[in-house]
Amino acid sequence: MNKRTASNAIVKAAKIAFQQNGYHKTTVEDIFQRANLSIEEFDDAIGSKEKCCLKVLKAYTADMKKKLAEYEENMNSRQRLSLYLDDFFDNADDIAENGSAMFNLYCALRNMDTDLSDAAEGLLNLQKNWIDEQFVNMLKTQSAVDQGDRLMAALHGLFFLACLKNDAAMFKSQIIQLKSWIRSM
Fold first, then answer.
1. pLDDT of 114 strictly over 90
2. How many domains is the chain partitioned into structurally?
């Protein structure tokens, strides 16, 4: 297997391992076995758990930028936020079982003083800044940070609660309420 193919397989496997086990409990062995690779192939393609996680965060960031760009095709900020929430609604079963992959990784890495914590914070800030921008456009105001903070707090609280209760139906119901709140503005 060439280095690029191995790297892609490792990132895919690491996303699942970090989601299910958390960053700290995931071992290099968990990752390379899930990717059906040897330790030598892992070392050749990536080299360490930290570098692997950095690649995972970069993949999440690229995916998020792509999704946000797709939402931007819609001229209506309310609709953009609704589409953003729809993605969570569509993944409610996975979120109820495992939590939010990106948020879980952020929580695991946020207190580390490394490039990993910086990359995780950058991913969270990418979403937060985009959400704030939507509220600024929608409410035609200079600052809508409070509204963006409320949406982010509600979402992250829901990730935690849905996973704690393993209740996708409750999560979906609350996402619908968030969409209703946005429509009411």
1. no
2. 2
The number of beta carbons lying within 10 Å of the beta carbon of residue 49 is 21
105 lies in the same domain as 41: no
Question: Average pLDDT, stretch 58-78?
Answer: 95
Find all residues with CB under 8 Å of 115, minimum gap 6, and list them: 50, 54
| Sign of torsion over alpha carbons 38, 43, 45, 47 | positive
Verdict on whether the full-model pTM lies above 0.85: yes
Query: 156-163 long-range contacts, Cβ below 8 Å, gap at least 24?
Result: 156/100, 156/103, 158/88, 159/95, 159/99, 159/100, 159/103, 159/104, 160/99, 162/92, 162/95, 162/96, 162/99, 163/95, 163/96, 163/97, 163/98, 163/99
Q: Which domain holds residue 149?
A: 54-183
Helix (H) or strand (E) segment spanning residue 144: none
Look at residue 2 in the predicted model and tell me its pLDDT: 85
